[in-house]
Amino acid sequence: MPQVEFMGKTFTIDEDGFIDSFENWCEEWVQWVKKEEGIDELSDEHKKVIEVLQDYYKKNGIAPMVRVLSKVTGFKLKHIYELFPSGPGKGACKMAGLPKPTGCV
Questions:
Q1: C-beta of residue 84 within 8 angstroms of C-beta of residue 49
Q2: pLDDT per residue over 25-52, tens digit each?
Q3: Range of the domain at 77
């Protein structure tokens, strides 16, 4: 698997750029994905989406469906795409350290 070095950390990633294990998630990972996604600054709304994704993943072992993410955060899907231009599956799940979603996120 490919590796990425950023801020003194080395991350193993899959072919789509997702971190190899949720246990390896850290603040440096967030900063790397933020840079890759072209997000200038993380807002409280970004952090809320990441928190919800991680909490759901810890409880269920998978990422939530988009409608669940939207309902729990209170954000419309359009707004989630504004926060994470590559989408909730690619951008938000990647930033949260979740594995690549297999279904519709």
A1: yes
A2: 999 999 999 999 999 999 999 999 999 9
A3: 3-96
Q: Is 24 helix (H, G, I), strand (E, B) or coil?
A: helix
**CATH code for the domain of 11:** 1.10.10.370
Q: In this structure, is the dihedral angle defined by the CA atoms of residues 15, 10, 60 and 63, taken in order, positive or negative?
A: negative
Amino acid 101: pLDDT: 83
Q: Let me know the angle formed at the C-alpha of 42 by 49 and 72, rounded to the nearest 5 degrees.
A: 15
Residues of the chain short of pLDDT 70, as ranges, are 103-105
Supply φ then ψ for residue 89, to 5 degrees. Answer: -75, -55
**Which of 35, 63, 104, 105 is the catalytic position?**
104
Residue 40 lies in a domain: yes
Specify the pTM: 0.91
Spatial distance between the Cα atoms of 40 and 34, rounded to a whole number of angstroms:
7
- Report the chain's terminal Cα–Cα distance, integer Å: 24
Active site residue 93: no
